[in-house]
Design brief:
single chain, five-stranded antiparallel β-sheet, 3 helices, disordered N terminus
């Protein structure tokens, strides 16, 4: 009787494992199969059972993959394939070089960004429409530590955005910066803004308007922004951003460059320019940043 009970339990256990390993897929769709050893394959799953899947790629007609070796299985949009190559989604569509677009991080998504080695920031999607970010500047951080007082420059960047129509998104947010002031006071400053983005995550333009503030006092005239992004290949995009600041009329500050893309990273190599800068450095001041999705 004991042997019979053990046999029954063994069979039930194996059946449960087999059922939990089964994957429901559509043989007409394209999947990304990520293995535990880091290998990645793209193709159609034309057979599956409780033990394995059989994958057909553009170069391999039949590839048997045990379910125990699969780390992650994602269904892909066929529109992401161009000339037989998979174009991963833009990993950094929510931000241009400095300012935001009206696209938002999905719930649970986040990224770390480093700018010129001294500015470090994090952003996180609280919901599909609301995100929160913040960061710290390293020179003031280490400088204040050396003087035995922790008094760094820090900033906070909450944002809310929604899709309002096909290829049209709208958003609003605040970029708040807190810096050490004279004596022992600190100075809070920033900009409250509204933005509208037209286009897809691969090709888009964003116009924005915002009012600067310092120590609770709001500026009389708005700051205007105009930004754009165009993905020109699987791993590269062009990015530009202009800020028009109300000082003796409107003076423009322009940033333009190239973004190198991977599935979870983006590296920006760009230049900051305006007429005053161009009189000394024609192409502008170099700007470098990188972002990693987490």
């Amino acid at each position: 009787l004991r042997i019979l009970m053990l046999t029954v339990l063994f069979c039930i256990n194996n059946l449960a494992i087999g059922q939990s390993n089964e994957i429901q897929v559509d043989t007409n769709n394209i999947y990304k199969v990520e293995l535990r050893d880091g290998s990645v394959f793209y193709g159609n799953i034309f057979y599956q059972d409780s033990v394995k899947i059989e994958l057909r790629t553009t170069s391999i007609p039949k590839l048997d993959i045990p379910l125990s070796k699969i780390l992650k299985l994602d269904e892909l949009d066929k529109s992401n394939f161009r000339n037989g190559k998979y174009w991963f989604n833009n990993p950094h569509a929510t931000r241009y070089l400095h300012g935001p677009s009206a696209f938002n991080l999905k719930k649970g998504e986040g990224y770390y960004k480093n700018t010129m080695l001294i500015m470090n920031s994090f952003n996180y999607g609280i919901t599909d429409n609301i995100s929160i970010g913040g960061g710290i500047e390293l020179i003031s951080t280490f400088g204040s530590i050396l003087t035995e007082s922790f008094n760094p420059i820090f900033f906070i960047t909450p944002k809310v955005s929604y899709k309002v129509a096909n290829n049209i998104h709208a958003g609003a947010g605040v970029i708040y910066v807190n810096v050490p002031g004279f004596l022992e006071d600190r100075t809070g400053m920033g900009i409250a803004y509204g933005i509208g983005t037209y286009g897809t995550e691969e090709y888009n333009m964003t116009a924005g308007v915002g009012y600067g503030f310092i120590q609770g006092t709001l500026a009389n005239n708005p700051v205007l922004t105009l930004s754009g992004m165009a993905r020109i290949s699987r791993r590269t995009a062009l990015v530009t951003e202009s800020w028009f600041i109300p000082m003796d009329g409107y003076n423009g500050m322009h940033t333009y460059g190239i973004r190198f893309l991977a599935e979870k990273t983006a590296i920006d190599l760009a230049f900051i320019n305006n007429p005053d800068i161009a009189s000394a450095i024609i192409i502008g001041i170099p700007y470098v940043s990188f972002s990693v999705k987490i």
